[in-house]
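Colleagues,

For the teaching module next term, I've prepared a clean inverse folding example: a structure given as tokens, and then the sequence designed for it. I'd like students to try predicting residues themselves before seeing the answer, so please don't circulate the second half yet.
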């Protein structure tokens, strides 16, 4: 595996990623059998994970996309959520599963879940690929499915970016500090 020069170290390998996604897909397939869930991808970071997860789910399901941001190009959340693209699917009476790449504070997801509940979905859950371990902070939401936990470091790859770069890395790696501290 070729390590990108801006990556300090690989945190989760391509093989480990696929094992995690297959496990979550099997759990969702078991839990939502005969429910025709709607898988919601929160763009942009979760699109790679969501595509893999969709293929790992063995039951009928639909997919839709939502884009929201609170980062606006930096490495820290601004705390202000902007919906950039809303769902096209009517969620009333639907079982919704939000595919999230990395659960950090959970504030974005809490807001999105509130919006979807107001629209009358039958149930809503989160399938998080990773949950960031942040000292002295509890996320605002609790995912039903968790792939893995990650340390409180700036990570990229597998859809995760820094200033729209590194999304295409097949692994998740820790970005070198000098890349984003300069």
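(Answer key — instructors only)
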């Amino acid at each position: 595996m070729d390590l990108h020069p801006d990556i300090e170290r690989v945190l989760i390998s391509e093989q480990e990623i696929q094992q995690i996604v297959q496990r979550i897909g099997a759990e969702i397939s078991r839990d939502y059998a005969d429910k025709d869930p709607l898988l919601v991808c929160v763009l942009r970071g979760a699109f790679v994970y969501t595509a893999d997860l969709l293929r790992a789910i063995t039951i009928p399901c639909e997919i839709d996309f939502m884009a929201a941001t609170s980062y606006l190009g930096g490495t820290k959340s601004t705390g202000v959520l902007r919906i950039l693209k809303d769902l096209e699917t009517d969620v009333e009476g639907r079982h919704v599963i939000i595919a999230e790449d990395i659960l950090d504070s959970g504030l974005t997801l809490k807001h999105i879940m509130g919006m979807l509940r107001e629209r009358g979905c039958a149930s809503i859950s989160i399938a998080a690929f990773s949950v960031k371990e942040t000292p002295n902070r509890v996320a605002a939401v609790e995912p039903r499915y968790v792939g893995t936990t990650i340390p409180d470091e700036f990570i990229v790859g597998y859809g995760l970016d820094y200033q729209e770069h590194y999304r295409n890395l097949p692994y998740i790696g820790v970005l070198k500090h000098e890349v984003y501290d300069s």
